[in-house]
Amino acid sequence: MVFIGGPRQVGKTTLALTFVKNSKANHPAYLNWDNENSRKIINQGTWPKEEELIIFDEIHKRKGWQSLIKGFWDTWKSTQRYLITGSARLDTFRKGGDSMLGRYHYYRIHPYSYPELGNEKKNLDALFRFGGFPEPLLLQDEREHRRWVNSRVSKLVRIDLRDLENIQDLDKVELLAENLSQKVGSTLSYKSLGEDLETSDKTVKRWVQILDSLYYCYTISPLGSTKIKAVKKAQKLYLWDWSEISEPGARFENMVASHLLKYCHFQSDVEGFKMELRYIRDESGKECDFVVIKDKKPLFAVECKLGASVFDKNIGYFKERLNIPKWYQVTLDDIPERKVTPDISILSFHDLCIKENLI
Q1: How much helix, strand and coil, in percent to the nearest 5, is found in the chain?
Q2: What is the pLDDT at residue 164?
Q3: Rounded to 5 degrees, what are φ and ψ at 329?
Q4: 119 and 90 both lie in a single domain
Q5: In what order do the strands lie in the sheet with 30-32?
C-alpha cells in the first residue's frame, strides 16, 4: 500500500489517476469518499476485484477508515494494491504498534518548487507571486488567484474541517486561518491569537493543530542547544500556500521554508533518513531562520533576506557557538555568491537550490 498526503488542490488526485488506464475520475478503480456511489462501493467492498490497483481518495473522512483499509488489505493483498490519498494527515499507523507498520509507504506531496519548474528567473517570479499550487501558478492571473485563495480557505474550513472535527464556531476558525498569514516567521503566541478571537489559548492551539493536520499550515521548533541558551518551546508558523502572505519579506521566508521542508520530506519519505527543519533562537532574541538536520546532525543553516543586504551578524555569533558546517544568508535578488568566511556565504535563492540540491 501507498499513502499520499498533501494539501487540498495540490494535485493528489491527478497524480493518483496517472497509475490507472485512461486516467479518468469515473474509472471503476477510483473511489472517492466524497462521492455517494463510491461510498456505497467502499462500505460494501464491491469494487472490481480484477483491477490490480484501487485508489481510495479522501477515505480518511470515514470514521474507522484505518480498520476498514486494514481489513481490505488482509483479504485481498495477494491480488490487489492500494493507493490511499487524502487532504489530511494519513500517517496514523506510525503512532502505534499496529500490524500495518512496515506494510505501507507514506509520501507527502508538496506544491511546485523552483527546481521543479526549472531554474529560470521567470519561474521564480511566478512562484513568488502566485505560490506553488498548480491552478493559480499555471493561470498566473491576479484576479483568479485572489478568488482561488478565498475559495480554498473557505472550503478547507467549511468542508474538510467539518468532515473531520466537531467544531461549532467555524467562523472563528476561518478568521484564525486568515490571521495566521500575519504571524508567519514570528514566534507563535496562542495567548495573543486567543485574545484577538476572544477564545481561550487552549482552544486556539487545538484549532492550529487541526489546520496543521489539514495541510493549511505547519510549525517548526527551535534547536534546543545549551551552548546558546536556546529557547525551548516557542514555535514558528508557516503556510503551505505562501502566496496568501502580503508582506514580501515574510512571503520570501515562507517560500524558503517550504522548499526546505519539501527537501526534508523527500529525504525522509523516499530515502528513509530522519530529517528535521528547525530554527535557531536564544533567550536574548538573536535568531537564524532555519537549520536542516539529518539523523540528528545539522547540515546547514539559512537566514533569509529579501534583498541583497549587509551581512547579518547573528550568523557569525551562532557559527562560533554551534557545530553547523555551512551557513547561508539567502536573498531573492539575483546576486553572485559572496564568501564571508569559508563556511558562510551570501547568495541568491537560485544558487541555494543548486548548491544543496533542493527538489
Answers
A1: 45, 20, 35
A2: 81
A3: -105, 115
A4: no
A5: 30-32, 53-57, 81-86, 2-5, 105-108
pLDDT tens digits, one per residue of 274-302: 999 999 999 999 999 999 999 999 999 99
Look at residues 328, 326, 232 and name the one whose alpha carbon lies nearest to residue 278. 232
0.90 cut: is pTM over it? yes
287 and 347, same structural domain? Answer: yes
- Number of Cβ atoms within 10 Å of the Cβ of 96: 9
Confidence of residue 96 (pLDDT cuts 50, 70, 90): very low
What DSSP letter does each residue of 248-293 carry, written as one string? HHHHHHHHHHHHHHHHHHHHHHTT---EEEEEEEBTTS-EEEEEEE
User: How many residues does the structure list for the chain?
Assistant: 359
Query: Where in the sequence is the domain holding 247, given as residue range(s)?
Result: 114-355
C-alpha 310/C-alpha 137 separation (Å) is 32
Sheet strands (E) in 199-355:
217-220, 236-239, 275-281, 287-294, 297-305, 326-331, 338-341, 344-348
- C-alpha to C-alpha distance for 204 and 193, rounded to whole angstroms: 7
If asked whether residues 50 and 92 sit together in one domain, one would say yes
